[in-house]
Design brief:
Length: 705
């Protein structure tokens, strides 16, 4: 609506009455026309633009009552409001005028404040209804294109108009549908009705110029007994006090969008759980029936996104989804009794398959093995072949399950078990997995408070010069002294911390504590040659942005010179993004710290990247050391690694040295340093301090067998 002034028509045969009322209305901001009889009034109204008429009830010739009858034959009350003015306070006459269509009345002599209030009230009501009509017209025009269904709720009468299209979309009986709100609200899913009512009430009670349109998604029961997903949007018309008078909006069917994955077109989690729930209910009533859930995860999918970009990753997911569908279609073709399938993308690179109507649970495993073989065929991107494997977890229904969500959870657990074995495999859920999953969750929860509760400790294992036997430093090793469990082995919690990301904060704490302790010992034992410390960096830590800056800050905080810190990394940091690993390692090297490659020989790093990395020290894995004497192959590997390292200007540390003959053999091969139980087990900081008290002036230690 425009911001023009409202135009009023004052109809009265008395000039003084007209003029006085006109002057006061003009001062109140109105545009005013006047007429001295019915004929002039009709001419003014026919010219258009009149918003309200102030009509004298008693006039010579055609009376105000007769003119009112004539006007109401052409103009409705909400289109052209008429307020009667009368000098006769006769209730019967006034009631007659109101019954003929007058909107209101004022008595003469006119109390202007009363008249102004009644004029304003009628104009506000007219404007509100005009806005509603315009809104309805806009909705009607807009929805001719998108075919949404219109609803119009008169809040004063609590009646709702449902358009023909609304009834069609809702799948309801068009002839029998009434105008009660219950025709709509009574069919909303029990789990959704609370949210819908809350949103409606919140929208009605909202105030201010920034009230947002009503919006809600819910399930609606149709005539066939099935629920469809609906989306409603709407606006509310309010009176001058902000009270909601009327609400109108549109409803559309969003079932396909709501229940299907936008990228692959497969069922989404919502639809998958709905269908799995139907299977769950069915097997409880048919004891011989079976169904299973297969949970699939693409191994190392992040590598695709990181190396080829997210668009390529999306294309891969689409191709992978199509391959699943084709494989299962082929399964139906060759094995008609294999059951029914629902394939869903749950999110990211996680997929699930509902295998229904199985004759035996073992069929699910057979299907999974065929899917593993399907994934072995390379994918083609921009003329390049790309191989991807998949890990599959299987959970078959049995009577102990209380919900389909529990079944999906167990299939997920089985998938992680398959992935933990290197991927490209399947696992069938069993109770042992549940126990392991529960134990893992317990560890995960315990780790969250471990540092805060001072449960983490750093142990120190001596590093010895094989030539002189002198103590040259320590490797800092993390231990978790958990109340009620004792000292927890790193093998039990490091992998969990890595997966959950807690390793970042735990690893940073361990690094700070080790640096602080070594600096303290250097000050406490000046007679002992300055000791260095090696601290392990996990893959996740190594990939953290700003790693070099944080380590520099820790060194400054603990007053430890960088030359006494060595950072141990494994070959796995090179696997996913070797170029980035080289950049990070060089930034660390620029700080002045040493870089040690741990467990050398057990990973998959390329020698070309090894040469580019600023490595100071290679650490030979203990698995080669313990078999070195008995197996000539392991001896040759150790000899070759030592020779290669020395030719590249690197030092070599052998870990796992447990006997004198191993130390002697390593010394003869030119290995500079050794670690292992032969020299000392990892011990607490307090015990390490006692060890330093007994260190000989030349830094040598007695073997600790």
């Amino acid at each position: 609506m425009s911001n023009r002034k409202h135009k009023l028509l004052v109809v009265d045969d008395e000039f003084l009455n007209r003029d006085m009322l006109k002057q006061r209305l003009v001062r109140s901001g109105f545009e005013v026309a006047e007429a001295e009889d019915a004929q002039q009034a009709l001419q003014a109204i026919e010219q258009g633009g009149i918003d309200l008429v102030l009509l004298d009830m008693m006039m010579p010739g055609m009376s105000g009552i007769d003119l009112l009858k004539l006007l109401r034959g052409v103009h409705a009350q909400n289109e052209l409001p008429v307020i009667m003015t009368t000098a006769v306070a006769d209730s019967q006459s006034i009631a007659g005028a109101l019954n003929l269509g007058a909107n209101d009345y004022v008595t003469k002599p006119i109390d202007f404040q009363v008249a102004l209030a009644r004029v304003t009230s009628q104009l506000n009501r007219k404007d509100a209804e005009q806005r509603l009509r315009e809104s309805e017209e806009r909705y009607a025009l807009a929805n001719r294109g998108n075919e949404d269904g219109i609803w119009d709720w008169d809040l004063a009468t609590n009646r709702v108009y449902y358009s023909q299209r609304w009834k069609e979309i809702s799948g309801l009986d068009q002839d029998r549908l009434g105008d009660s709100p219950e025709e709509w609200l009574g069919r909303v899913h029990p789990q959704d009705i609370g949210n819908l009512l809350n949103r409606l009430k919140a929208h009605w009670s909202a105030t201010g110029p920034s009230v947002r349109p009503f919006f809600c998604e819910y399930r609606l029961l149709n005539r066939g007994g099935a629920y469809r997903w609906m989306q409603s949007r709407g606006h509310t018309v309010r009176n001058e006090l902000g009270r909601a008078l009327r609400m109108t909006g549109a409803q559309s069917d969003i079932t396909e969008r709501k229940l299907h994955d936008a990228l692959t077109g497969l069922a989404n989690r919502l639809l998958f759980l709905e269908r799995a729930g139907q299977s769950f209910d069915a097997v409880k009533q048919h004891p011989g029936a079976h169904f299973a859930i297969l949970f699939l995860d693409i191994d190392r999918f992040k590598l695709i996104n990181d190396t080829m970009g997210h668009l390529a990753g999306d294309r891969f997911l689409v191709d992978f989804a199509a391959r699943l569908i084709n494989a299962l279609d082929g399964e139906r073709l060759h094995s008609p009794n294999c059951g029914d399938f629902t394939v869903a993308r749950l999110g990211g690179d996680e997929f699930a398959i509902l295998v229904d109507n199985l004759s035996h649970p073992s069929q699910a495993e057979e299907i999974a093995r065929r899917l593993l073989r399907t994934a072995e065929t390379p994918f083609l991107f921009s003329g390049r072949e790309f191989y991807a494997s998949v890990s599959i977890g299987i959970a078959a229904w049995n009577s102990t399950y209380q919900s389909v969500e529990d079944l999906l959870r167990d299939a997920d657990t089985a998938m992680y078990d398959a992935k933990s074995r290197g991927g490209g495999d399947l696992a069938i859920f069993d109770d042992a997995m549940r126990r392991r999953a529960a134990a893992r969750l317990d560890i995960e929860n315990g780790l969250r408070k471990a540092i805060e509760r001072s449960e983490m400790q750093v142990y120190y294992q001596p590093k010895i010069s094989l030539d002189s036997g002198a103590l040259v430093g320590f490797e800092a090793l993390l231990r978790w002294n958990r109340p009620g469990f004792g000292v927890v082995s790193p093998a039990e919690f490091i992998a969990v911390a890595e997966e959950t990301g807690q390793i970042v904060s735990i690893g940073e704490w361990a690094l700070r504590e080790a640096c602080r302790q070594i600096a303290a010992w250097q000050a406490q034992f000046p007679a002992v040659p300055p000791l260095s410390v090696s601290v392990n960096l996990s893959v996740r830590q190594f990939r953290q942005p700003g790693l070099a800056s944080r380590i520099a800050a820790i060194l400054a905080e603990t007053h430890l010179s960088p030359k006494y810190l060595q950072l141990e990394i494994t070959e796995s940091v090179l696997m996913d993004d070797p170029e980035s690993a080289v950049v990070t390692a060089r930034r660390l090297k620029d700080l002045g710290v040493g870089i040690k490659l741990d467990d050398f020989g057990t990973g998959y790093s390329s020698l070309s990247y090894l040469c580019r990395m600023p490595i100071d020290t290679l650490k030979i894995d203990r698995s080669f050391i313990v078999r070195m004497k008995e197996h000539s192959t392991d001896f040759e590997i150790v000899r070759t690694v030592i020779a290669m390292a020395r030719s590249l200007g690197m030092e070599v540390v052998a870990e796992g040295v447990e006997r004198d003959d191993q130390a002697a053999q390593l010394r003869s091969l030119g290995c500079q340093f050794g670690q292992g139980y032969y020299f000392g087990k990892p011990i607490s900081a307090a015990d390490t301090a006692q060890l330093l008290l007994t260190t000989r002036p030349d830094g040598t230690l007695d073997p600790m067998l």
